[in-house]
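Good morning N.,

You mentioned wanting to compare the apo and holo forms, so I went ahead and generated the holo version with magnesium ion. This is what I fed in:
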Amino acid sequence: MNEKIFELKDVRFAYLGKYPALCGVDISVEKGQRIALVGANGSGKSTLLHLLDGLIFPDSGSVKAFGAELSEGALADAQFNYDFRRRVGLVFQNPDVQLFCPTVKEEVMFGPLNFGSGYEKAAKDFDAIMKVFGIEDLAGRMPHQLSIGEKRKVSMAAVLISNPDVLLLDEPTAGLDPRTSRGLVDLLNKYHREGKTVITATHDMHIIEEIADIVYVFNHDKHIVRAAPPAELLADTGFLQDNNLIHIHSHRHDGKPHVHPHGHPSHDHTH
Ligand SMILES: Nc1ncnc2c1ncn2[C@@H]1O[C@H](COP(=O)(O)OP(=O)(O)OP(=O)(O)O)[C@@H](O)[C@H]1O
Ligand SMILES: [Mg+2]
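and this is what came out, ligand included:
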């Protein structure tokens, strides 16, 4: 059996003890698996990613990472903390939460320098990752003065430069132009081929077939209502509509308004 990366049992979490965000979540993730988290706004996807990154801890239930309890106490241990942070990288949904350095170069090099890479290796990795995202010209800029898409590329580069085994991505394609979005999907597939584990929260239903082996669907009760391979899920239009994963789309055909469910679930753009 493959190495277990995460194992969650009946995890419950409420912000400030009164705003429920996860209500009984069970998830098991094996090494090399690609997981997509989908569901309506406020259904708990980001909260789950923060929990998997050891930023928040459950009110009840258990979270295991690499076979060990992922608790505040465990992360207080310097060695455990270093190993965990080295292996797991989270790209935040909102880049402004993540970006904090005065320049893009410092931002992107912060991880490797912090993990003890020498400056020379960090600088080499920096050049390579900036090229991957085509953002070499942003090196001297202030992260907060960039466009949203540019910020997203910088925050992605800042995590991917350290080459973590486990990638947690929160809406990585939101606000990206089509070419960048395509490039990101290709990049995730390259990471998959290298044996990395990739967990992606997304509203972008037309990429889930390419980025996930299994999709967890969250509902309004902050609960996982279904775990299924993407193709099976995308074929179930009624379920997609009920769970706010596709919408009714109205456009014109031969000059007449025409309404149908929309989410490009089957990559069928002919209608
Ligand atoms: N900092 C916070 N304080 C209080 N409640 C919060 C906080 N962050 C999130 N919540 C609540 O927790 C629930 C889950 O939020 P979460 O951000 O995990 O949803 P999400 O599925 O990522 O949504 P989206 O698709 O909008 O990103 C929501 O009801 C939200 O209002
Ligand atoms: Mg979110």
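Residues 264-271 have pLDDT under 50 and may be disordered.

Happy to go through it together on a call whenever suits you.

Best,
F.
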